[in-house]
Design goal:
mainly alpha; 2 helices; 74% helix; rod-shaped
C-alpha cells in the first residue's frame, strides 16, 4: 500500500499529511511487533508441548503451577 504525497502550498494540509504518514508507519510497526510476538508464542508453545507432552491436556493454571515449581528447583 503506497501513500501518495499531494503537493500543497497549505502548511496545515502538509502537517496533517505528515501526521497521517507517521501514524501509518507507527501502525505498521505495531502490527509487525504483534505478528512477531504471536509467532514467538506459538513457537514456544510448540517447544513446550514437545518437551512436556502432558501440557496439552492440562488446564492453564495447573500448567503454570507445574512450570513454576519445576523451574524454581
Amino acid at each position: 500500500m503506497s501513500t501518495r504525497i499531494i503537493p500543497s502550498s497549505d502548511p496545515e494540509q502538509a502537517r496533517i499529511q505528515a501526521q497521517h504518514r507517521l501514524e501509518e508507519a507507527q501502525n505498521r510497526d505495531r502490527k509487525a511487533e504483534r505478528n512477531a510476538r504471536t509467532r514467538r508464542l506459538i513457537q514456544e508453545g510448540a517447544i513446550l508441548e514437545k518437551a512436556y507432552p502432558e501440557a496439552k491436556e492440562m488446564e492453564l493454571e495447573a500448567l503454570q503451577y507445574v512450570l513454576e515449581n519445576k523451574l524454581k528447583s
